[in-house]
């Protein structure tokens, strides 16, 4: 098989070397590793050229990551049997490409995403690590995934060529979506291909280190997903996603009602604590603990944060905020017909224009 790796990068000089080294250390070497330096103002391309890889230097592209991927794919990966997509701050375990090559032999293989984890310390990174572990386990349990994350996934070259032949794009990746990974995965599933989480491939990636950057990232993910779902409509492929959106909206409402009831009871001096009322927090504690024990490279702090409830509950409130704000953004766009650059909003939240931009 011909296997080509595409790595889009914008101002990633501090991480691109480790990413490339993880690719060169694979038990099954890729036939081509293509670093797509998109409008870099730092030494990303200089660092990449120290390694035996292909470096594409491009100006700052209008459609950012999607356009960079399409340009790299059209020049270097159009005829590949297997295409691996990686972010420039991601490290793959050594068995990744070899295992993906084996998986690609399965019937109707469309793509396989890695099991992502974050190894950085700190509250926000630990919470994201827990989220990743939960979502990965859900994908493994279901036997399919609705997002082949571009940060570390492998795609059937044949399937990508079929998607690229559509009239609404220049390559496999769409310019209409702010969450191009979700859109591409939907198109693969729509065409009858299987997309799933690999049971053996692990990837290590960076997490958002504070609430502002996490909010910016999740606003882009959530608002972009909402916009795509409205475009796709309700069908057999999106019904579970719509159900998740409904539950995501109900969650914050229930929490706000709970706080209102407790506050009113305290004000009226009618609050009474009964033993069975403690079953709910203990249930949440058990669910959090079940997720925590599955976190790779967990430590005592991961377990502590799960069983004390408060840290995870705080994140749940924050999550409810960006979910409501995302739907508000979608409604605003429908009313005003004015688009907002969700990528730029994420960059601003991360403060990366002056440091580095995460693709």
UniProtKB/TrEMBL annotation:
Keywords assigned by UniProt, alphabetized: Glycosyltransferase, Membrane, Transferase, Transmembrane, Transmembrane helix
A Pfam match: Glyco_tranf_2_3
Transmembrane segments: 246-267, 273-291
Record keyword Transferase present: yes
GO function terms (MF aspect): glycosyltransferase activity
Keyword rRNA-binding: no
InterPro entries: Nucleotide-diphossugar_trans (IPR029044)
Family according to the record: Belongs to the glycosyltransferase 2 family.
Name listed for the protein in its UniProt record: Glycosyltransferase family 2 protein
Organism: Arthrobacter jiangjiafuii
């Amino acid at each position: 098989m011909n296997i080509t790796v595409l790595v889009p990068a914008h101002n990633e000089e501090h991480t691109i070397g480790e990413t490339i080294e993880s690719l060169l250390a694979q038990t099954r070497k890729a036939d081509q590793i293509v670093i797509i330096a998109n409008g870099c103002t730092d030494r990303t391309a200089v660092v990449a050229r120290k390694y035996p890889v292909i470096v594409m230097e491009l100006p700052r592209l209008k459609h950012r990551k999607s356009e960079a991927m399409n340009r790299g794919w059209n020049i270097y990966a159009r005829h590949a049997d297997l295409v691996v997509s990686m972010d420039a701050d991601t490290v793959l375990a050594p068995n990744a490409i070899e295992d993906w090559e084996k998986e690609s032999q399965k019937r109707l293989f469309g793509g396989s995403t890695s099991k992502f984890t974050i190894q950085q310390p700190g509250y926000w990174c630990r919470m994201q690590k827990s989220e990743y572990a939960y979502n990965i386990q859900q994908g493994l349990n279901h036997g399919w995934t609705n997002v082949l994350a571009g940060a570390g996934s492998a795609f059937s070259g044949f399937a990508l060529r079929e998607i690229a032949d559509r009239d609404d794009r220049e390559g496999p990746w769409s310019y209409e979506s702010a969450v191009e990974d979700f859109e591409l995965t939907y198109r693969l599933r729509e065409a009858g291909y299987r997309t799933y989480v690999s049971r053996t491939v692990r990837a290590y990636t960076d997490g958002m280190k504070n609430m502002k950057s996490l909010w910016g990232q999740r606003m882009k993910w959530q608002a972009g997903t909402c916009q795509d779902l409205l475009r796709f409509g309700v069908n057999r492929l999106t019904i579970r996603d719509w159900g998740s959106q409904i539950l995501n909206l109900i969650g914050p409402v229930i929490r706000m009602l709970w706080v209102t009831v407790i506050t009113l009871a305290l004000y009226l001096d009618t609050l009474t604590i009964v033993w069975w009322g403690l079953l709910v927090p203990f249930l949440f504690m058990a669910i959090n603990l079940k997720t925590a024990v599955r976190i790779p490279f967990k430590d005592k702090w991961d377990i502590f944060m799960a069983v004390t409830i408060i840290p995870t509950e705080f994140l749940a409130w924050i999550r409810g905020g960006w979910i409501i704000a995302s739907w508000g953004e979608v409604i605003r766009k429908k009313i005003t017909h004015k688009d907002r650059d969700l990528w730029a909003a994420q960059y601003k939240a991360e403060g990366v224009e002056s440091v580095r931009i995460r693709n």
